[in-house]
């Protein structure tokens, strides 16, 4: 593997073998494969973060890992995660916990998608420098204020003492990156693992009864309770989603029965059902382990708008349908 700024970041963060495997799995735009310079550009740091998060998702989603192993290089379209617009201890509430990372990396808010049936709001974030080549983020917020008082109290018990993975020194580096659009190498190598830590669960063990209470009103909040701000799914941009779905169905994988299609007809999505994961809970003074829905792998086909540019939008109806993939596993 020829050393570039991007490869240096990934090797330092993941190790040589894991970095090589991740490069083999993902298409990377040539403009991101620059020689090692004196500083690290925000686009390089954003791409390194995305590639590490993609690898983390595959480690938790066996069907996704199997598909990628067969598919060769894939185009990473977007990663999605869930947040809670509610007091969260030391962690900034809602999407602020994530957007404080995305903005300095060069991401800009793109569009809002009301997810009314789920009592959530989705927002897309697109990279300012290379919007078609660097994966977007779809960041959703759940609104506990729209649920019952008992639900709200349970949310507070579960996430109310969340920790902040970013120290003041990390926040200072993000401010520097936002200002200069580059970081010195030492700073970039120190910051990247701290940014990865933002995409984890930031609260500790909680009662199984609280999990069941959350699930009774919101499968999405129950998912956040066990998985936190980890990638809910990562998405492969494909040329023919019908062919992909048919091929995966023939392999007896848990591909969605239908393909979600946007109002414009240009954005089509489907997905594997969420993987089951083992998570620990407190129950009658003991720690117990249960199988719960984890993350999943998604596919998207994007058409082009009148000017010829790729339609990088999303669709609230599509998103609501896709969210059901984690309702049960």
UniProtKB/TrEMBL annotation:
Family affiliation: Belongs to the 2-oxoadipate dioxygenase/decarboxylase family.
InterPro entries found in the cross-reference section: HGLS (IPR009770)
Protein name: 2-oxoadipate dioxygenase/decarboxylase
Cofactors, names only: Fe(2+)
Keyword Magnesium: no
Annotated keywords: Dioxygenase, Iron, Oxidoreductase
Highest taxon above the source species: Bacteria
Organism, as annotated: Roseateles violae
EC numbers on record: 1.13.11.93
PANTHER family documented for this protein: 2-OXOADIPATE DIOXYGENASE_DECARBOXYLASE, CHLOROPLASTIC (PTHR31136:SF5), DUF1338 DOMAIN-CONTAINING PROTEIN (PTHR31136)
């Amino acid at each position: 593997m020829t050393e570039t700024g991007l490869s240096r970041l990934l090797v330092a963060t993941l190790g040589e073998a894991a970095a090589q495997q991740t490069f083999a799995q993902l298409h990377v735009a040539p403009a991101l494969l620059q020689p090692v310079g004196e500083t690290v550009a925000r686009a390089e740091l954003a791409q390194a973060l995305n590639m590490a998060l993609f690898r983390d998702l595959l480690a938790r989603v066996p069907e996704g890992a199997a598909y990628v192993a067969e598919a060769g290089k894939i185009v990473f379209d977007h990663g999605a995660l869930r947040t809670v617009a509610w007091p969260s201890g030391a962690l900034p509430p809602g999407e602020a916990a994530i957007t404080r990372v995305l903005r300095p990396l060069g991401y800009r808010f793109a569009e809002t998608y009301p997810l009314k049936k789920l009592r959530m709001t989705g927002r897309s974030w697109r990279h300012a420098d290379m919007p078609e080549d660097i994966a977007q983020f779809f960041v959703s917020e759940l609104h506990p204020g729209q649920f019952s008082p008992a639900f709200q109290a349970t949310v507070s018990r579960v996430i109310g003492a969340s920790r902040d993975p970013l120290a003041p020194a990390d926040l200072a580096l993000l401010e520097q990156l936002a200002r200069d659009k580059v970081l010195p190498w030492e700073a970039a190598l120190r910051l990247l693992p701290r940014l990865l830590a933002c995409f984890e669960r930031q609260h500790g063990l909680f009662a199984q009864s609280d999990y069941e209470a959350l699930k009774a009103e919101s499968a999405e909040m129950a998912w956040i309770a066990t998985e936190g701000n980890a990638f809910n799914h990562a998405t492969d941009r494909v040329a023919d989603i019908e062919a992909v779905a048919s091929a995966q169905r023939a392999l007896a994988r848990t591909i969605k029965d239908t393909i979600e299609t946007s109002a414009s007809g240009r954005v089509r999505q489907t997905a594997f059902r969420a993987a089951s994961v083992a998570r620990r809970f407190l129950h009658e003074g003991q720690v117990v382990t249960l199988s719960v829905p984890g993350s999943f792998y998604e596919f998207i086909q994007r058409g082009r708008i009148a000017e010829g540019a790729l339609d990088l939008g999303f669709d609230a109806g599509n998103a609501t349908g896709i969210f059901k993939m984690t309702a049960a596993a």
